[in-house]
Amino acid sequence: MSEKGSTNPPPPPESVVVLYRHTMLSRCLSEAVGTYFLILTVGCNVMVMSTGGALSIGSMLMCMIFALGSVSGAHFNPAVSLAIYLSGRSNFSIRDLFLYTASQLVGALSAGLCYEVIFLDAFVLKPVGKYNVFMVMAVEVIYSMALCYVVLNVATTRAQAGNHYFGLAIGFTVVSAAIAIGGISNCCLNPAVAIGSLVAALLAKGSKVLGAYSVYFFMPYLGALFGAFAFYLVRRKEGYDPRGIGLFVVKEEANSIAAAPSTVTGGEASPNAASSASPLIQSDNEAN
Amino acid sequence: MSEKGSTNPPPPPESVVVLYRHTMLSRCLSEAVGTYFLILTVGCNVMVMSTGGALSIGSMLMCMIFALGSVSGAHFNPAVSLAIYLSGRSNFSIRDLFLYTASQLVGALSAGLCYEVIFLDAFVLKPVGKYNVFMVMAVEVIYSMALCYVVLNVATTRAQAGNHYFGLAIGFTVVSAAIAIGGISNCCLNPAVAIGSLVAALLAKGSKVLGAYSVYFFMPYLGALFGAFAFYLVRRKEGYDPRGIGLFVVKEEANSIAAAPSTVTGGEASPNAASSASPLIQSDNEAN
Amino acid sequence: MSEKGSTNPPPPPESVVVLYRHTMLSRCLSEAVGTYFLILTVGCNVMVMSTGGALSIGSMLMCMIFALGSVSGAHFNPAVSLAIYLSGRSNFSIRDLFLYTASQLVGALSAGLCYEVIFLDAFVLKPVGKYNVFMVMAVEVIYSMALCYVVLNVATTRAQAGNHYFGLAIGFTVVSAAIAIGGISNCCLNPAVAIGSLVAALLAKGSKVLGAYSVYFFMPYLGALFGAFAFYLVRRKEGYDPRGIGLFVVKEEANSIAAAPSTVTGGEASPNAASSASPLIQSDNEAN
Amino acid sequence: MSEKGSTNPPPPPESVVVLYRHTMLSRCLSEAVGTYFLILTVGCNVMVMSTGGALSIGSMLMCMIFALGSVSGAHFNPAVSLAIYLSGRSNFSIRDLFLYTASQLVGALSAGLCYEVIFLDAFVLKPVGKYNVFMVMAVEVIYSMALCYVVLNVATTRAQAGNHYFGLAIGFTVVSAAIAIGGISNCCLNPAVAIGSLVAALLAKGSKVLGAYSVYFFMPYLGALFGAFAFYLVRRKEGYDPRGIGLFVVKEEANSIAAAPSTVTGGEASPNAASSASPLIQSDNEAN
């Protein structure tokens, strides 16, 4: 509506959106490192029977998400990666899902070995006290759904693009869940935690520990399905925020792009991101 | 003051404010889902007698508010919806109030049934230890007022539009209240929590549990009255932030609107929001 | 440097800064309400001997600061008001200091009476266990200094203007202090808390409780002196953020001011604020 | 791309980035004050055997980081300063590293003396319970790496420039670590904490306490090496955010610079910062 009356329009300031994405190697390293610290913290808290383990584990998740969200999206959980894949974002491909999951498992195995070596012991995920495996399945599915649902909402929607609370919301969902259902199921919610814990427990105690691990591995995936579906029901018509998969937006003055090329290189091309930004660039060209 | 000297003004960049509102179905789904997770977390914490239940419940509220605030405003509490209605915002009608309350009750009933089925047991809200029902009434009214007052201030005022701490402030008001008065009244503050808990308790224990439930249902509404009145005293002359009822602001380059229409459709028209944004649009037209 | 070459410059968008200040009555109401909820939460936690009282009290402070920071600056503590006055901000006069302190004491007395009526009992601030009054003086001064220092830094400096963490930083300074020195001095840090607690204790237990109250009343003021001095040493050359005293900045499109006058009225004139914003307005006039 | 068609472009608004840095004296004072409060809080919590010491210590770190991050970058830890130096930022020189470390040690010694004088006693850092010194070395290195890694990511990367969660992420990394490994090693992670604690313990208990202090002093430095290396692997190609070393960005209208000179003086010149901002200034000059 503004083209008609302005014969000599200036270039709109701050009109070029630069989407930057780290290389896949950096992103996989990020997923492995974050998952490693998360699961090592799980291990230390359980092995020393700390008071406040839920706060410790959720806080480490929060801090690693704040640290690495702009690198890889900071999933640190194969079920979360699946939920993001299922949410239909074309920027997160099946190949990305596979590589992210593999990186998370590498981090999980490293963490499991690490705390097994430090403590020469490990813990076993299993129903707590009087609760049975069906109760464990119920709460693991429900709270995995809550976790994936919160991630999809705070980290991938356009309405909340650029928010500064994504790590707080995701990390404290785990704090809340670990307090609420830790006394029922030990609160896993993460297939990578299940695998890391399983390997450490196998090393320390042998194959008699396998009992409920299939529940701890598969229920988070089921929760991811439900979370992605609930997200789809409410927000399917909204645009997406690219931050959830490690893209971030750098706003640049139009004039400074040529002078500062070093800031927009160094990563791999992101064709989908470029096309989503194209309306802004096109309107810039049309104005001239 | 700038119109007089500028004969050929350019279109102001970033001058078009797009207010987007989800459909009423999405907003009701959002209220039901958030209330469900909130009350399920209440149930799990009480049933397993967790340590840190106040942090768990308030954190889940915080995370769901961060997740869904941009969809429905994230009330998850009929008393909060009443307070927002009473604050005089024309964008939140009596019909909205009714539909929000109904959705919250659906979520509350689902959560109550869910934890009753998982645990085959339920808890009863009643005065704790030596405290009597008058003490419970006092603290429930006062802290419900605090909760509604914080919500009105952080989520609906123009001075704080776009803040990133609304969920933290609201969630941790509940953390604070649950620690402070949990030992007196069990800290309800929410008619939906009262209803969900009542239905679960009726199923598990029969009609002898009805005792104090009318207090837990009505006191939050009284607190909402006081909270809305205190808010009115201090801030009645200020403009409003539309985020408290699920509107959010998308700032768009003027030139890119025609090229990217997909981002401004998909929801229902919001006439009031449009009229409140009209000064900006009008000034844009006048400039041309 | 940009005037020379541009013969027909457009009005700079977003160039008018509107500073809005609530009326003194609203600001005093805000201080009284926030102090009331803070001290009532102190009373409830101490009276029910809650677990996590430090988190409850600091969280309530945080939430009230987030809620009311844009109204009155959210001091809720006469020592904090003194520190802000001493920091040399011309917008916070000696009259403001007097009215703020009086409002905080009104809130404190209301809260003290309120929890005395609810519990028909009260607590007495005094050294804990083996610790003597000199230790109490030391830790009360040091942590009051920390509190005032954090407030001055996060809420009044230009470098951090518009931050979204001011309430978190201030509230959790109290969480930290209440955990660290609660077992030594009960952690008062606030003359209004001392007065509210004193009146409630006098009503419940008679005049034998006066013991250490002069320490709890005066040490926070001494801490405020030290905090303001430490702040002066580091940051005296910086500009100020007007938010610490209840001013907030509304950025407006230059063209929309005339069309939307309702948003910039309703409060009292703030001449100092206007003069600090004048460079922007002047440059706007020069451009035309 | 916009120079070709615009013969008379206006100066881009908000195009001048002003980087301000406090004097080295202010920055050193800031490091000393923050480290003092951090280590005094460690001392008080350990000496009174508080419940929730991890939250208290991490929260004080968070609050001091929020308070002083814009002055000195808020390291408060010689290992963090080393990690920032190693990350290759030309704005943080070896001289800065030396002065920061010295200031942190001054703050640490003051805090150690202070709590030794208050309590006439001190604590000794050593392995807890059944854990040996090798376990302590492992967890101290790993969690020091996590701390430095989080700092480098949230406080020095361009992708997260201007975020409002840096203090939350860093402070709660310490909360998480102190809960997870407090029961193994007492969780030091900071050579300044080791020195402050050592001097207080020497005064209170004599030279028999020296046992494991070399571990507590050197392991954080080893963690800093690993953290800086992990950071280098993932993010070496990214631009830097100057906030991690106490620079902050003040965005100014181009026209208002001459009229408001007081805001850009008062600190020392920062030649490197100026050169990094030069593309923006150059493009401004070219446009005229």
Please give a structural write-up.
Four copies of one chain form a homotetramer. The first copy, chain A, has one domain (24-241): Glycerol uptake facilitator protein (Up-down Bundle), CATH 1.20.1080.10. The first copy, chain A, is 62% helix and 4% strand. Chain A contains nine helices and two strands, in the order E-H-H-H-H-H-H-H-H-E-H. Chain A has a two-stranded antiparallel sheet with strand order 1-2. In chain A, helix 5 (133-156) runs antiparallel to helix 6 (166-185) and helix 7 (191-205) runs antiparallel to helix 8 (213-235). Chain A is globular.
Structural class of chain A: mainly alpha
Report the biggest beta sheet of chain A as strand number plus sense, adding barrel if it closes: 2 strands, antiparallel
- Oligomeric state of the chains? homotetramer
Number of helices of chain A: 9
Beta-strand level of the residues of chain A, as a percent range?
under 5%
**What string gives the helices and strands of chain A in order?**
EHHHHHHHHEH
pLDDT averaged over residues of chain A: 80
* Rg result of chain A: 22 Å
**Roughly how much helix do the residues of chain A carry, as a percent range?**
55-70%
Q: Can you tell me the CATH superfamily of chain A?
A: Glycerol uptake facilitator protein
Global outline of chain A: globular
User: What's the total number of strands of chain A?
Assistant: 2
The name of the CATH architecture of chain A is Up-down Bundle
The CATH C-level class name of chain A? Mainly Alpha
Largest interface: A-D, 62 and 63 residues
End-to-end distance of chain A, in Å?
Answer: 16 Å
**What is the total number of structural domains of chain A?**
1
Q: What name does CATH use for the topology of chain A?
A: Glycerol uptake facilitator protein
Strand order of the largest sheet of chain A: 1-2
